[in-house]
Specification:
The protein is an all-beta fold. The protein is about 0% helix and about 50% strand. The protein is built from no helices and seven strands. The strands form two sheets. Strands 1-2-3-7 form a four-stranded antiparallel sheet, with no helix packed on it. A three-stranded antiparallel sheet has the order 4-5-6, with no helix packed on it.
Length: about 70
């Protein structure tokens, strides 16, 4: 997962609770977005598995296709 800081465009480092920009010294939440419509995805957890669902008609989205976007805390 390669996600860049929305402020300085440097790569973010993944943390337990989201991501951190070392350059800006800012913390971000990572939000799962649909790669087709760019709307937030619903996260479904069951039996240890995590799946992503788009309510805008794109159905189940593979975790390999999820578009991770940083959101300021």
């Amino acid at each position: 997962m390669d996600v860049n800081c929305p402020v300085c465009n440097q790569p973010l480092e993944q943390t337990e609770t989201g991501a951190r920009c070392v350059s800006c010294d800012k913390d971000f939440q990572l939000e799962a977005r649909c790669p087709d419509c760019h709307q937030p995805l619903e996260v479904m957890k069951a039996c240890g598995a995590v799946d992503y669902f788009c309510r805008n008609g794109h159905g189940l989205i593979s975790k390999k296709r999820v578009d991770w976007q940083p959101v300021a805390r």
